Amino acid sequence: MDLWSWAVSVYGREGVADAALALQDEHGQCVPLLLWAAFTRPVAPDLIDRAVSLARTWEAVAILPLRAARRGLKADLPGAPAEAREALRTRVKAAELDSERLLLSALAELGAAGEGSLPAALATVAAGWGGTVDPAALDRLARALSGSLPRPGKTG
């Protein structure tokens, strides 16, 4: 299974979306990067650095601007009927999801999986990303993801 297919399937599991979005919204983390870390469990510092750099670029150029537009379109806007605004918001949401898919695809191209543990991979990548690294929030994500991961070295 490829990274995107895996990410879509696990994101719907109980607790995964809530844990991932809490890390994003409350702790400044990058959900696609965390999902990549869970899937690949990287251990090589240079690989992690390249992944963080790639994710930062995608977030700055595409993901964050689209997310801001989507969230901004939740509110009533002068001169825009609610139905038209919501239709635009739906298209922006789809573009935001497409940008996350492209980021995951680019991350998947960085190299082979590692042999690290899930908690260690999440913690290392979260620390590399910066923002707040909340061990309890990372543990919630790790617990929600457990049982849904490929075996180390078998990512695609």
Description:
Helix 2 packs antiparallel against helix 7, helix 3 runs parallel beside helix 5 (82-108) and helix 6 packs across helix 7 (135-145). Mean pLDDT is 92; it is low at 152-156. Helix content is 70%, strand content 0%. By secondary structure, it is mostly helical. It has one domain (3-145). It has 7 helices and no strands.
Short description:
By secondary structure, the protein is mostly helical.
| Extended strand count | 0
Stretches with pLDDT under 50, minimum 5 residues: 152-156
Helix share, percent: 55-70%
Secondary-structure element pattern, one letter each: HHHHHHH
Tally of separate domains: 1
- Output the structural class: mainly alpha
Sketch the major β-sheet: none
- Helix count? 7
Bulk shape = elongated
**How large a portion of the residues is in β-strands, by DSSP E?**
under 5%
First-residue to last-residue Cα separation: 5 Å
The Rg value, from CA coordinates, equals 16 Å
Task: Return the average pLDDT rounded to an integer.
Answer: 92
